[in-house]
Amino acid sequence: MARFRRFVFPFARPAVAHNLLLSVQRSQSAVTCRASLKWVCALSAGSLPVWNVPLLQAAPLPAPLIWFPNVPGALSPGKAPAHGALRQVGWHGRRPAAHDLFPTRSRKDLSPGRPQAGRVRSQGAPSGPHRSRTLSGGTDSIKISTRRVVSHGAEEVVNRQMINQFVAGTNPLEVLALTSPGASFASGDPSGMDTSTNTFYLRGFNLTQLGVTVDDIPMGSQMFANVGGATATQLFIQENISRLEASQGAGALDTPSSQTLGGVLRYTTSDPSDHFGARISQQFGSFNGFRTFARIDSGKLNDTGTKFYGSFLRSDHNLWAGYGYQKAWLGNFKLVQPLSDIGKLTYSFDYSDFSDYSPLGLTKNMERVLGYHAHNFKPDYHKATQWAQCVVTGCMPPGSAGLTPDEVSDVGYQGGQIQRAYLNALKIEVRLFPNVRATTLGYGQVANAWYGGTQPGIVTPEGFPMAEFAQHPNMRRIGFTQTFDIQAGRTNAVKTGLWYQNDYMQTWNDLFADGPAGAHSMFHHLHNDRAAHWAEDRTNTNTFQFFLQDRWTILPGMTFLAGFRSLTQTTAGGTRHDWSSQLARQGWGLFYSHPANGSLTAAAAFLPHFSYDWRFGADRAHEVYWDIAENMRAYDYNVQFSSNTPWSGLGTASGASGQQVFNQQKSRLKPERTWNYVVGYRYTSAFLTAGVDYYHTDYINRLGGLTSGSALNPVRAYLNLGNETMNGADVVVTLHPLQALGLAKDRWGDVGLTNSFSYNHAAYQNKALPTSNGPLNIKGKLQVFYPQYMYKMNLNYRYRHLTANFNVTYSSSRPLTYTNDTRVPGYWTSELTGTYDFGGLGFARDFQARFGITNLFGGKYFSGIHGGAALTGDDNPILYPAAPRAFFGAVEARF
């Protein structure tokens, strides 16, 4: 398939310039520049940045010239144009404004030095009819119409069209996993939005080990709790996300992140429209679910191009098993202000409020005994009290035959969370010189939450056998990034920048006494002034990162990138106050609270990154690429009652205290590092896309939490698990058979069929893992929670106004323990969706209807895994069964 090239339109008499309507057909690609003229159209996925192309010094001509700088034989400095390289086109319309000579590059896609490999697509997206996209800047716009977006390098993209093929509100990470090799997503929630049951991996790395940004704003660790950032999919409305780029290689130097060990995830939200409009979507679904989305775009408000949008989301559905619901309110606001002809300013404000009852985490044995639909006891308060009393006395309650005492204590009356986050960001993009662009981004976030539930076995001063335990964190972070894109000569695109962030978190760990009259409400009765304070945790974290890279265009279609980044992060704090002894004197019966306090620093002065990409052959249909980088991940931080951090859940009441364990670990722990290597090949044509790549990772100083005991009183250690070696390969083929047979799309439609297979062998290398029972050999044991094999099939059919999509995925069994003695079996997932676009209907300029079925074949399997792994045995309640078959229907109108 032919790539788009860059076009320069040098006019001999700028003062007499007119509106230009240009259409160039080359091979099977088409480009259309519409509306007011842009003097430089950066429409290419080619290798030369915009600033590379000098304006021609042309004599007066009756019509403009089109220069194809990357076409063989095209005009180059000091040479006459070859035949066909310089063409004339007609022009008509208005006289140009001054900004036509130096148009605002209003999107990062047009920035110098930004890898054109970023203009990519997830395999499996149908070619279908031409797609359209509008790039806006200043007072002009460019409409790009393409047949498909093609992947480049070790990178995949989910674009808006791909997201629209799934049920409205589907987590973009799930869309990525269903359509891209090497990605794995599982959840106990039909839409995949409940972070407490979600599991996402990208080539062996989970969400806490990937760099994540939204519109270049660092989002921190995508943990269940908002620590050091916010969960991207819970703060940004899915309809406002225009694309999700996934770098499956060694990451990206310019991504502000302290946890990147493998790839990065870059979300991009849509800009406000140039024209006034409104959009309303209403969805209903299984489990009494509904979802309402509304957005209003102001259009351009004045001659300077000011525009904004405001959007709102309200969703609500019941848990599919047991009592409870999951509710969400989200708001996104975005304002764009062009700055004359030199850049633009973007301000955004985002808000989210989640209130969720949590499903019950299970062991494999609990699922066998209690059933697939096992859940917390609410609203059966009497049964919850019976079981809690047995936790205290050691008896086995009615209905618990087959469970262990630890598993009896894992079932409580209720559990849930409230999460609220507010994020502000201001970005200024300015062209300082013809070859230098500066981007300054400042952001601030505040967030607070309640996490917790009923804890059977905690005895109140009145002697009641259970109480509500709740964590109440308050977090604020502020930070900025500063980057410079510098075009150094014709072949070198240099990029450099820095990032700083301060994150402060205070968490109250509180108790609320239950009694015979009933439990507290998870969402109405939890207030600090009514609580018995158990402990207070505080952490303060400072992060600094610097990077420098140079992308060298060796030949047209061949680029080489070299660079490095420096990273340092220091976290100080832990348990500031612990009132266990005071509560014990008041009559509370508590378990050990694991207090620990201190500081840790992770630092690396030189983390190199090298990558190479070569596209060659007719229409550059062949591509060879490789990627090599070293990465370091700073230490996680959280409260003492959490898990998998150096400050959390350490020690025991009868052995070493939490503080003693922390002090011992501080001298032994080293930050995690990886060396990542990727090499691959891809072929792209009009009806066939095929790719294969191999990756290898050397994982150094891998850290992990070892957990034993019950949910009531877990015993944890945070240890260096030694090194790990990972080898994997992905193969993907996308075929458009109707195009291959030469059948017309307007008569037969278009079929896109994608098949992919992924293999991953990630094995621990430690022969002497320290445990309470002595050294344990786990060398050769596979990484926990990750499938070794994955197969995916995506079938998409488009015929005029109808689109249908069918997905099937197989994931092999996953180890639950470091010794691999316990596994969850492999499983199949399936999903079917369909959309019909009615076009204009009544007052609506566009009206669509959408229908979807998740878990189409009604499979029963463990989907999400959330929590720490055990050394051996089926001891941890960290498994969440998949939701049964669910149905969704939605209508959407645009005005």
Notes on the protein architecture:
The chain has 895 residues and is mostly beta strands. The protein is 7% helix and 48% strand. The chain contains ten helices and 42 strands. It has a 22-stranded antiparallel β-barrel. The protein has a five-stranded mixed sheet with strand order 9-15-16-13-14. It has a three-stranded antiparallel sheet with strand order 10-11-12. The longest helix has 13 residues, at 381-393. It is globular. Residues 1-149 have low confidence and may be disordered.
Highlighted features:
single chain, 22-stranded antiparallel beta barrel, five-stranded mixed beta sheet, mainly beta, 895 residues, 42 strands
Give the low-pLDDT segments: 1-149
Q: Distance between the terminal alpha carbons, to the nearest Å?
A: 36 Å
Helix content: under 10%
Question: On the 0-100 scale, what is the average pLDDT?
Answer: 82
The structural class is mainly beta
Structure annotation, total helices: 10
Q: What's the layout of helices and strands?
A:
Blueprint: E1 7-8, E2 22-26, E3 29-33, E4 40-41, E5 65-67, E6 86-88, E7 131-137, E8 140-146, E9 155-159, H1 160-163, H2 172-179, E10 183-186, E11 199-202, E12 205-206, E13 211-214, E14 217-218, H3 232-235, E15 241-247, E16 264-269, E17 277-285, E18 289-297, E19 307-318, E20 325-339, E21 343-357, H4 364-370, H5 381-393, H6 405-409, E22 415-433, E23 436-456, E24 466-488, E25 492-513, E26 532-555, E27 558-578, H7 580-586, E28 597-616, E29 622-633, H8 658-666, E30 672-684, E31 688-709, E32 714-735, H9 737-740, H10 745-748, E33 750-764, E34 789-799, E35 802-811, E36 814-815, E37 823-824, E38 827-841, E39 844-854, E40 862-865, E41 879-881, E42 886-894
Parallel strand pairs: 13-16
Antiparallel strand pairs: 1-4, 2-3, 5-6, 7-8, 9-15, 10-11, 11-12, 13-14, 15-16, 17-18, 17-42, 18-19, 19-20, 20-21, 21-22, 22-23, 23-24, 24-25, 25-26, 26-27, 27-28, 28-29, 29-30, 30-31, 31-32, 32-33, 33-34, 34-35, 35-38, 36-37, 38-39, 39-42, 40-41
